[in-house]
Amino acid sequence: PASLTAGRFQEKIIEFQKFKIRSNAMYAQILGNLTRQAKGFELLEQLQIEEYDLLLKRDAQAISSLEFSVHGLLRQLAVERDELKGVMQGTRILEYAGMLEEEQAGPIRTQYYLIDQAEQRCARQAEKNTALSLALLDKSHEVMNFLYEQVQPRQTDVYGAKGYMAKHRPQAAILNGRF
User: Fold this and answer.
1) Crossing angle (nearest 10°) for helices 2-57 and 60-88
2) Closest listed residue to residue 77, CA positions, set 44, 120, 46, 52
3) Which of 124, 110, 112, 113 is nearest to 44 (CA)?
């Protein structure tokens, strides 16, 4: 019976070592994922600042190409989030960090808070970009309305091509006549 207990003890040690290896691999995967997300949000913030500058310059072509980069980065961040959710299996990051020793928990918490701060900065910058783009849209609508009013004929009583008084058409119409 003593050898059986020693055998079971050896099995438990091997099982624990396998668990520790899996735990270290999981830790490395989680920390790597959080680090990639933190760097991704830093890049997103830089792209949003660049977008704001391009909006001020009204460079539509450059804004369009930059938007493709922003959308690609957002897709990648969403993939990273989904992968992390799959690994965590419903456990929150800070709860997981609480289960670790402090030397492992520290980097996890640091990355978590870096991501949180970067997300907040990105949200504020996105609001600024949205406000500026909507203001530019309103301004361009005002300019288009002004130009349309300037092109419309002011007098409603004009002569037509045959010398008769033409009917007033405020909307666009085809012109007939000789030049």
Assistant:
1) 170
2) 44
3) 124
> Which pair of structure tokens corresponds to residue 48?
């949003």
Q: CB-based burial of residue 128 (10 Å sphere; 0-12 exposed, 13-18 middle, 19+ buried)?
A: middle
Q: Are 63 and 144 in contact (CB under 8 A)?
A: no
List, for residues 146-172, the tens digit of each pLDDT value: 888 777 766 656 666 676 666 656 566
Are 55 and 132 spatial neighbours (Cβ–Cβ below 8 Å)?
Answer: yes
Take residue 131 and report the two structure tokens written for it. Answer: 């406000």
Distance CA 171, CA 99 (A): 72
Length of the chain equals 179
* Count of alpha carbons within 13 angstroms of residue 125, beta-carbon side: 20
Q: Is 148 helix (H, G, I), strand (E, B) or coil?
A: helix
| pLDDT single digits (tens) 32-83 | 999 999 999 999 999 999 999 999 999 989 999 999 999 999 999 999 999 9
Residue type for position 1: P
DSSP string, 92-131: -HHHHHHHS-HHHHHHHHHHHHHHHHHHHHHHHHHHHHHH
Question: Whole-angstrom Cα distance, residue 94 to residue 30?
Answer: 12
Encoded tokens for 141: 């609508």
Instruction: Give CA angle at 72 (70, 74), nearest 5°.
Output: 70
